Amino acid sequence: MATRERPLSPHLQVYRWQITMTMSILHRASGIVLTVGAFGLAWWLLALAAGGEAYEAAAACLASPLGKLFLFGFSLALVYHLLNGIRHLAWDAGFGFEIPEFYASGWTVAVLTVVFTLAIWFFALGAGA
């Protein structure tokens, strides 16, 4: 009997890429970014508690271009994780299980993540300074 070469389980060669797959991956990735960011926040708080030179060094590090990139990524992950968590909460309440609603809520989360993150940075850097 001839054996056919085929995957043992479905994978990306079988499925078409969908927004739901992307949102799931990004939710996990944003959780990892938030974990790393929590360590950064703890480092900043310890520097604040130490006072003087330690805080100046931490503030200079966060004010650098790489520090601002880190803060932007952290805020982007925070907003995305929050909005996608609200989306999951709606699912837990029994809303949004139709295929068009999956796509609409996914795109809504993606667009609002960008809008809210840019608004936060606009008010934090632009209008507030």
The span between the termini is 75 Å
Just give the CATH class.
Mainly Alpha
Based on CA inertia axes, which overall geometry fits? elongated
| Mean of all residue-level pLDDT scores | 91
Question: How is this structure best described in words?
Answer:
With 129 residues, this protein is mainly α. It contains 4 helices and no strands. The chain has a single domain, classed as Fumarate reductase/succinate dehydrogenase, transmembrane subunit (3 helical TM bundles of succinate and fumarate reductases). The termini are far apart. The model has no long low-confidence stretch (mean pLDDT 91).
Brief digest:
The chain is 78% helix and 0% strand.
Helix and strand arrangement:
Blueprint (H helix, E strand, L loop, with lengths): L18 H32 L1 H12 L1 H28 L6 H29 L2
List keywords for this structure.
single chain; 129 residues; elongated; mainly alpha; 3 helical TM bundles of succinate and fumarate reductases
